[in-house]
Amino acid sequence: MENNDKLIIGNHEFNSRFILGSGKYSMKLIEAAIRDAGSEIITVAVRRANTKEHENIIDYIPKNVTLLPNTSGARDAKEAVRIAKLARELGCGNFIKIEIMKDSKYLLPDNYETIKATEILAAEGFIVMPYMYPDLNVARELVNVGAAAVMPLAAPIGSNKGLSTKDFIQILIDEIELPIIVDAGIGRPSQACEAMEMGAAAIMANTALATAGNLPIMASAFRQAIEAGRKAYLAGLGRVLIRGASASDPLTGFLHD
Amino acid sequence: MVQINGKNEDIAGKNLRDYLHAANYDTRIIVVEINEKIIEKEQYQNTIIKDGDIIEIITFMGGGTMI
Predict the structure, then answer these.
(1) What ipTM goes with this model?
(2) Of A156, A174, B27, B31, which cross-links A89 as Cys (Cβ 3.0–4.6 Å)?
(3) Which strands sit side by side in the sheet containing A151-152, from one edge to the other?
(4) pLDDT > 90? residue A92
(5) Size of interface A-B (CB pairs under 8 A)
């Protein structure tokens, strides 16, 4: 990969385009997951502390990896802002991934509350990365209120179903200047590769790895797929014929001529 | 009565720092909120827990999206 091909989020530069989630697997696997994924950003949740377990996830994350706390559990903008401020107070920087969900069946993000929370937190100096349902009007509003990236869902969270919203993510990629980071629903490396070929700036994955047979090997597979997709995007994909065929061998000099 | 992380405890009148220590919290990796106001670490010692306070003691955990 070219060294000058950086992912830029809020004036921070990253070489890796694979954002790793840290949920649903052992803390002891986190170091191997980060190493094999090559990730430079990892998401964490903010939750009530336990007095009995002094083991903390922070101790398992290398210091050069950027923490991206999420606001999961928030049901509206007010709760998301509260969680974001708690996360910042924990002393791991200004990055925040907004997640606001009222619906517990499909876990779909509330785009309206997400815009409100993004506006408040961006004004307070956070680097805001909102998780959203891929809607162009909402994405434009997120840009207007100061988001640092836009994170559309590919399919329902944890479903591993792949690019169900492909056409709408493509519209965001084509129309929005900010990095479009495909989050939620990506289940296979091939789907991550496809999103990157489309021009996504990065991929976020968690369940695809956490539910894989071997997490570190799957992390490595995703890394390679994301890098391949990025290279293909930068190279420019070959054209598709609507009908007919086009030989790639010379059409003269056949043995029967 | 004081509500801490959703549970009632009879600790009104205690100093926050002493309570956190006695309850075995690792203050390095937590943030404390009383009645939705974040308490700076330097203020733990000067904070007396009052009857009716709602206290949240928060840390980071593994999470991706909605975890």
Answers:
(1) 0.89
(2) B31
(3) A95-98, A127-132, A151-152
(4) no
(5) 116
The number of beta carbons lying within 10 Å of the beta carbon of residue A213 is: 6
Q: Residue A19 above 80 pLDDT?
A: yes
* Residues of chain A neighbouring B58 (CB-CB closer than 8 A): 46-49, 86, 90
Q: How close does chain B come to A251, measured CA to CA in Å?
A: 53
Count of CA atoms in the C-beta half-sphere (13 A) of B64: 28
Nearest CA in chain B to A101: B66
Phi, psi of A101 (to 5 degrees): -135, 130
List Cα–Cα distances, A120 to A8, A14, A61, in angstroms. Answer: 22, 25, 29
The answer to whether the Cβ–Cβ distance between A47 and B33 falls below 8 Å is no
Q: Do B65 and A204 touch (CB under 8 A)?
A: yes
Nearest to A57 among B25, B62, B64 (CB): B62
| Rounded Cα gap, residues A200 and A106, in angstroms | 24
Where are any strands of DSSP class E within chain A?
7-9, 12-14, 18-21, 41-48, 66-69, 95-98, 127-132, 151-152, 181-183, 202-205
Sign of the dihedral through C-alpha A17, A23, A24, A30: positive
Yes or no: say if A4 and A12 are a contact pair by the CB < 8 Å rule. Answer: no
pLDDT score recorded for residue A243:
93
Q: pLDDT tens digits for A178-235? A: 999 999 999 999 999 999 999 999 999 999 999 999 999 999 999 999 999 999 999 9
Q: Quick check: is A63 catalytic?
A: no
Inter-chain CB proximity A44 and B61 less than 8 Å:
yes
Confirm if A233 and A5 have CB atoms less than 8 A apart.
Answer: no
Which position among A52, A78, A97, A105 bears the catalytic label? A97
- A44: nearest CB among B6, B30, B62: B62
Q: Do B59 and A21 touch (CB under 8 A)?
A: no
State both tokens at A115.
Answer: 């815009």
The whole-model pTM stands at: 0.89
SS3 B30: coil
Nearest to A150 by CA among A112, A126, A183, A121: A183
